[in-house]
Design goal:
about 190 residues; Methylamine Dehydrogenase, Chain H
Length: about 190
């Protein structure tokens, strides 16, 4: 059995599908329903498979779910924005370091990357909110070593490299010009 999560952008649900051989079934027990107007955009499981984190594009928040016996249980919701921010914002992406210690989320409008420490119980502790090095960080990626975060700033045509500290804090490094970047991925080099 294989399980696949699909986020429906036209709804208020994250629909889970279960593959059994060649057949596909909707898994209503694991499907997540969120408050209308949140705009679920992207989710990722922690490396231990026990926690699932969902970023809401419109709601500018991260939702933490506990995954147990095929069911998702909402544990907490936390804002991606610093206290007191009143401007317009929509979220775009979130990623977890390979060691499961840190979670990062991107804000478009506030143009920042928010860092959280993932605690033992899966809950999130705010670390910082760092400017993304440009405008509209649509996507970002973490390298396999967990030492670097590369933020794509779509509307300022650049990619900014951040070093990830042992405490999860980001230190801005070089910025590279790149026309309207929207997706960045790391690939393992293979010999042909």
């Amino acid at each position: 059995n294989t399980t696949l999560c699909k986020i429906s952008l036209h709804s208020h649900k994250v629909v889970v599908y279960r593959y059994e051989g060649a057949e596909v079934h909707t898994d209503e027990v694991a499907t997540i329903t969120v408050e209308r107007g949140c705009g679920p955009r992207y989710g990722e499981f922690a490396p231990n498979g026990k926690a699932f984190y969902l970023i809401n594009e419109i709601g500018s928040r991260v939702m933490h779910y506990r995954y147990n016996a095929g069911k998702m249980t909402l544990c907490e919701e936390t804002s991606t924005l610093p206290y007191g921010f009143t401007g317009e914002n929509i979220c775009s992406d979130l990623h977890i370091t390979a060691d499961g210690k840190f979670l990062y989320a991107s804000n478009r409008g506030h143009d920042s990357i928010t860092a959280y420490h993932i605690l033992e119980d899966g809950s999130l502790a705010w670390i910082e909110c760092q400017p993304s090095g440009g405008k509209t960080p649509r996507n970002f990626a973490l390298d396999r070593t967990g030492r670097y975060l590369l933020a794509e700033n779509q509307d300022s045509d650049n990619i900014t490299v951040f070093a990830i500290g042992a405490d999860g804090r980001l230190t801005k490094g070089e910025t590279y010009d790149f026309g309207s970047p929207v997706c960045i991925r790391f690939f393992q080099k293979t010999a042909f």
